[in-house]
Amino acid sequence: MLRSILSGFVKPGDSFSVLDVGAASGDSGAAIRRSYPRAKVVSLDRLFSHLDRAAFPKLAGNAFHLPFRPASFDFVFSSLFLHHFSNDEIVELLRGFGRVARRAVLAIDLDRGLFAFQFLPATQWLFGWNHIFVHDGKISVQAALKKKELLQLATRAGLADACVAVHRPWSRLSLVAPVHPAR
Q1: What is the distance between the alpha carbons of residues 19 and 150, in angstroms, rounded to a whole number?
Q2: Rounded distance between C-alpha atoms, residue 81 and residue 84, angstroms
Q3: Residue 17, exposed/middle/buried by CB under 10 A (0-12, 13-18, 19+)?
Q4: Where are the alpha helices (DSSP H) in the chain?
Q5: How far from 182 is each of 73, 77, 98, CA to CA, in Å?
Q6: 94 touches 152 (CB < 8 A)
Q7: CA 46, 47, 51 angle in degrees (round to 5)?
Q8: 161-181 residue pLDDT tens
Q9: Would the pTM count as exceeding 0.85?
Q10: Residue 24 in contact with residue 50, Cβ under 8 Å?
Q11: DSSP 108-121
């Protein structure tokens, strides 16, 4: 999904920069680097210990107070991050992402729905999911957004040309919000 989103902006040989907010293990950054070897990805998470497996450059920082100048990165990206926050906090985060991005704000997150809510418990026996994982997964789905809600939050954050897509059967939303520099 991430590769598909980026392909709307860049080609495999292009150079560009990405700030991966809430990067944790750095899996998304690694996927970007595999598809786009000339991409520079900076992984940011609240605690440096969360970034143990992430490649450098990586740093600990507050997503609500990004320590970067305006337009420091081509893209600001987050994956499975936004659903951890209230609507007002999501607006604040997206506004900050838009300030730091030169080209677009990109996000992938959960789509709230019955299928996603029932998937983990229904497949626990098949995949051997830990009961805590299943419990936390259900809480995350309950906290997730619907397409219209995420679009409204992006608009409130000043991302006027945002588009949100639903990805089935994966119960995911993708936000693509081109950033237009101040004139």
Answers
A1: 20
A2: 6
A3: middle
A4: 2-7, 27-35, 87-100, 114-127, 131-143, 147-156
A5: 16, 21, 11
A6: no
A7: 105
A8: 999 999 988 889 999 999 976
A9: yes
A10: yes
A11: EEEBPSHHHHHHHH
